[in-house]
Amino acid sequence: MTTRPDPDDLLDRVMRDEDRQTRGRLKIFFGSSAGVGKTYAMLAAAKNLQEQGEQVLAGIVETHGRADTEAMLDGIERLPLRSTQYRDRTLHEFDLDAALERKPTVILVDELAHSNVPGSRHAKRWQDIEELLHAGIHVYTTVNVQHIESLNDVVGQITGIRVHETIPDHVFDQADEVTLVDLPPDELLQRLKEGKVYLPQQAEKAGRNFFRKGNLLALREIALRRTADRVDADMREYRADRSIVQLWQTKERIVVAIGSGSGEERLIREAARLAAKLQAQWLAVHVDLPGQRQAMEARERVVSYLKLAQSLGAETASITGEDVAQALVQFARSRNAGKLVIGQSHGRGWTRWWRKNLAARIAANGQDIDVYTVARPAESGRDDSVRTPVEETRDDGGRLRRHAGAAICGRPSAAP
Predict the structure, then answer these.
(1) Nearest to residue 344, comparing CAs of 332, 353, 331?
(2) Within 13 Å of residue 74, how many CA atoms lie on the same side as its CB?
(3) Is residue 48 part of a domain?
(4) 85 lies in some domain
(5) DSSP class of residue 272?
(6) 3-state helix, strand, coil in the chain (%, to 5)
(7) Which domain holds residue 113?
(8) Are strands 370-375 and 339-344 parallel, antiparallel or unpaired?
């Protein structure tokens, strides 16, 4: 099923496409640790490109003394390294200016997270690569999971070793292609023993510290999950680019609708437990209706609810929509979420009716979305977040009558 694209989204898409036409493409060979074969896989892909007639240049390739990796460089032209003096030592770095002058179709720039020698034009190698991409040069590079900034602390807690060279998450997320280079821990440990990861003296030290099987298992899982998240983002972008609204149930994802009334904490915690049980990602979202004011107390409650959800692992958002049910369904579809959780009030009269009506309207708007309701505790006091708009009329006998309408979050909603 498709729907007409939003004009702003369409314009943004056109601008992205124009940028892609002039910008080089970045391909990352991604692994859980050193020794899984990232550089070898990068060189194999480069040789394949050469066989297809593409111009490939090795800007810098770190073989770490591995004979099989060094052999893969045969037949690939190497760019001379730039020599620089630092603290009475001569160091050899990637020559960015020479690469820009040569302007090959594809350049190999190993170790994305590398820190350049002080005094270089850029502090980090990923910044060198950004300049190459802006010049229209395609780049192949490598990186391990522990070098991604958002995962650095997690990996440090597991391994007991803190890696200081990192890349911003956006560098990884905005890469045009990510290839996971995976190797089971037992095979990696065998490669370590055979001297295919480090030289013998280095291998012995690594085996006592970083290269323990438990560490490698954990790192492998993190790398697999990070790759899966990346693929999921690519899939959601593909659906958005083609205005596909039909859900593709490739991954469990839950959206919980947060109101501004009291007692939403239970709803949030129940959603967190449901997400944990299903091993699903979950998102907490609040819907604002345009043109309506919300009391300060209610706004503060929304902020505290979203902070609570975030502390429990949710991604949070505040969106605007003319109709709450429709806005929730559209948001769930945009995030490819197949489950929507709302609160169920035990109040009397129109409040209870409105909640039931909301669930029914969500179901009507999103027949491919499962709706879950969570019972709220009974409230003793007045709930400022839900007010009934009252219209006063007089009957034939002159008696005053009040007619209650439906509202949520202090704002009147569209009629069901």
Answers:
(1) 353
(2) 6
(3) yes
(4) yes
(5) H
(6) 45, 20, 35
(7) 7-241
(8) parallel
Cβ proximity of 234 and 356 under 8 Å: no
Q: Do the Cβ atoms of 52 and 235 come closer than 8 Å?
A: no
Residue 33 lies in a domain: yes
Q: Which residues does residue 253 pair with via DSSP β-bridges, in sequence order?
A: 281
- Overall residue count recorded for the chain in this entry: 416
Q: What is the pTM of this model?
A: 0.63
Secondary structure of residue 264 in the 3-state scheme: helix
- The mean pLDDT value of the chain amounts to 81
Question: Which tokens hold the place of 392?
Answer: 């006063």
Q: Are 147 and 178 in contact (CB under 8 A)?
A: no
* CATH code assigned at 86: 3.40.50.300
CA–CA separation, 63 and 93 (whole Å): 14
pLDDT band at 348 (very low <50, low <70, confident <90, very high): low
Beta strands in 207-262 (DSSP E): 253-257
- Tell which phi-psi region holds residue 291, choosing left (phi > 0), alpha (psi between -120 and 50) or beta: left
Residue 237 makes CB contacts below 8 A (sequence gap 6+) with none
265 and 298 in a common domain: yes
At 17-40, the pLDDT tens digits run 666 678 999 999 999 999 999 999
What is the number of structural domains in the chain? 2
Taking the C-alpha atoms of residue 245 and residue 113, their distance in angstroms, rounded to an integer, is 38
- The residue out of 203, 221, 241 marking a domain boundary is 241
User: Which secondary structure element, helix H or strand E, spans residue 371, and what is its range?
Assistant: strand 370-375
Q: In 244-386, which residue ranges form alpha helices assigned H by DSSP?
A: 264-278, 296-311, 324-334, 350-365
pLDDT digits (tens, 9 = 90+) for 200-245: 656 555 655 678 899 999 999 999 988 888 876 777 777 677 666 6
In a domain? residue 374: yes
> CATH number, domain at 329?
3.40.50.620
